[in-house]
Amino acid sequence: MSSAIRPRRSVLYMPGANARALDKARSLDADVLILDLEDAVAPDAKAQARSQVAAALREGGYGRRECVVRINALDTPWGRDDVQAIARAGADAVLLPKVQSAAELGALAQALDAAGAPAGLPLWAMAETPLGFLRLDAIACGHPRLAAIVVGTSDLVKDLHARHTPSRDETLLARSLAVMAARAHGLAVLDGVHLDLHDDAGLAAACRQGRDQGFDGKTLIHPKQIAAANAAFAPTEDELASARKRLDAWRAAQAAGQGVAVVDGALVENLHAEEAERVLALAAAIARA
Fold first, then answer.
1. Which controlled-vocabulary keywords does the entry list (predicted)?
2. 35 touches 67 (CB < 8 A)
3. Conformation bin of residue 71: beta by default, left when phi > 0, alpha when psi is -120 to 50
């Protein structure tokens, strides 16, 4: 199990038009970098951003960080050029914004293949529109190269005519649908951004909420948010101790021919053993990073 787990606690958007930011990202403690060619880049800077991101990827130096490029949608004036520029640049995955159908993922895969991208280059999909969330089950199983769902709460709140609230109740249903679809189809799932850079307490609360809801990590808009996400989405020492204890008891029960174990008065069944193994594997993967 441990070999299949990759930490994605902190997922930082980096504007592709900012060469200094692309360089600084090599030293940041983020698990994932989303090198952005879409929302973070003005139309007149699209070509510059595309060139800089491709060059940064080829130069490398990002170490264990997972580098994902968010391209512009294929039906925009920039999407096809984005694919051509980054197909062979060395990205770990390509993130498609505002996905509303599985067919869009198929079109992206075809475009990448035609541009000479590595076979099987993973696709990531952003869910950020009402229609996209309503179709998430079909999208999540719609292409074999899809590896992750990224929740975009800012665009969703706008489209819903809703308001951002500290509780995030306005996006609860959508976020739950994303987690459900991801878990049903074996994908990673990443929570939306926290927009207030001065609200450290709110950021920490949102990270805990996302972790409690089942997300693998949180998308971020500034390096100062990385530490909170890394802390919230990593197993605590108490969780690790409990996982080891439950797993040891379960294995002992299995060796004795028993179907269940009891730890501190609580029943431990196969499902608890599997979750304990997952938690321990995640901790081991974080330690190796």
1. Lyase, Magnesium, Metal-binding
2. yes
3. beta
